């Protein structure tokens, strides 16, 4: 059993639950006495660890009593939301929006959980506001009665934190649609950025919906129906977020198509005007070029009024072509 201070520094939070809704914070010594294969007489425990890159997790690997495959899943570098039964417990990976300072919300933060009847072990790589919300509820005396109840509380807090981010994206698309419908054109960069954020969020939120749905469906006799209803609520909310993100992605795509069409129409119109102007000057250029050839026999060379006659003729031809093009709505 490891008692190193380096190992203790990886402890983010730990609580013991009495099964009646009350939670007591645990120190590192109490965590060292916790083993998955030595259940407690009553209640359950939650141990939340911080994974530090390049630093081992001696308690988790050697003293927790967890299967090595479980430890490997909890400390994996990259994860996607999933729910997998394993032995007497469940492996669950979830994601939450990244609300850390200076970070992008769509760069979602993972939390990996091992859930059994008497023990919940979770591992994070970066801090999650949803976990902080859950810890604050426990410290305020509002704790769950079962391990899956703790997970349901955490899942609901994750969805609570997602909602403002998705609403902001929806409002941003509303503004883009209003701008596209008016005279001003939104920047394509903004449209692409909103669409990218929606696609990135959806990539993690969709499997999270499936993971929560699978957790609800697990035939565990230590999960009360009230907790299953909480999980169903979290699943329904995540399902709605998936639909919202798909709508945001599609609406941003439509705005991008509108921008492309408007720009193509503008360019076509400008090209058409330039072509029409060239068509007006083409016969004028032909006539002046013909009269400018350096050979004998050019009419009017000896007439002092010939220049003004030719000028008037060119103006008449130009005005006539202009009026013709205007009548045909080519200009």
UniProtKB/TrEMBL annotation:
Q: Which Pfam families match?
A: CorA
Q: Which family does it belong to?
A: Belongs to the CorA metal ion transporter (MIT) (TC 1.A.35) family.
Q: Record's Gene Ontology CC terms?
A: plasma membrane
Q: What is this protein called?
A: Zinc transporter
> What is the recorded membrane topology of this protein?
Multi-pass membrane protein
Tell me the keywords, alphabetical order. Answer: Cell inner membrane, Cell membrane, Ion transport, Membrane, Transmembrane, Transmembrane helix, Transport, Zinc
Q: Which InterPro entries match?
A: CorA_cytoplasmic_dom, CorA_TM1_TM2, MgTranspt_CorA/ZnTranspt_ZntB
Q: Is Nucleotide-binding included in the keywords of this UniProt record?
A: no
Q: Which organism is it from?
A: Tistlia consotensis USBA 355
Q: Name one GO molecular function term.
A: cobalt ion transmembrane transporter activity
Matching Gene3D superfamilies: CorA soluble domain-like, Magnesium transport protein CorA, transmembrane region
Q: Where are the transmembrane segments?
A: 272-294, 306-325
């Amino acid at each position: 059993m490891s008692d190193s201070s380096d190992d203790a520094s990886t402890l983010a939070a730990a609580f013991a639950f009495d099964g009646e809704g009350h939670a007591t914070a645990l120190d590192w010594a109490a965590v060292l006495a916790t083993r998955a294969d030595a259940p407690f007489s009553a209640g359950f425990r939650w141990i939340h660890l911080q994974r530090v890159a390049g630093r081992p997790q001696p308690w988790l690997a050697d003293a927790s009593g967890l299967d090595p495959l479980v430890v490997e899943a909890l400390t994996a570098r990259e994860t996607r939301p999933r729910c997998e039964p394993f032995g007497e417990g469940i492996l669950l990976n979830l994601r939450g929006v990244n609300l850390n300072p200076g970070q992008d919300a769509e760069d979602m933060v993972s939390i990996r959980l091992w859930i059994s009847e008497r023990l919940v072990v979770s591992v994070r790589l970066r801090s999650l506001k949803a976990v902080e919300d859950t810890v604050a509820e426990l410290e305020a005396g509002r704790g769950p009665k079962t391990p899956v109840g703790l997970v349901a509380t955490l899942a609901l807090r994750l969805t609570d934190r997602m909602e403002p981010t998705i609403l902001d994206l929806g409002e941003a698309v509303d503004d883009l649609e209003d701008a596209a419908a008016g005279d001003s054109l939104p920047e394509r960069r903004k449209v692409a950025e909103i669409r990218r954020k929606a696609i990135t969020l959806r990539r993690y939120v969709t499997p999270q919906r499936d993971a929560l749905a699978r957790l609800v469906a697990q035939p565990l006799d230590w999960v009360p129906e009230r907790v299953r209803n909480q999980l169903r609520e979290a699943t329904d909310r995540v399902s709605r977020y998936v639909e919202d993100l798909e709508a945001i992605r599609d609406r941003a795509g439509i705005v991008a198509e509108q921008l492309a069409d408007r720009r193509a129409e503008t360019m076509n119109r400008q090209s058409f005007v330039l072509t029409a102007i060239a068509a007006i000057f083409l016969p004028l250029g032909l006539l002046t070029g013909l009269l400018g050839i350096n050979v004998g026999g050019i009419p009017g060379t000896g007439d002092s009024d010939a220049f003004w006659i030719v000028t008037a003729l060119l103006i008449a031809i130009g005005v006539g072509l202009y009026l013709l093009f205007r009548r045909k709505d080519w200009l």
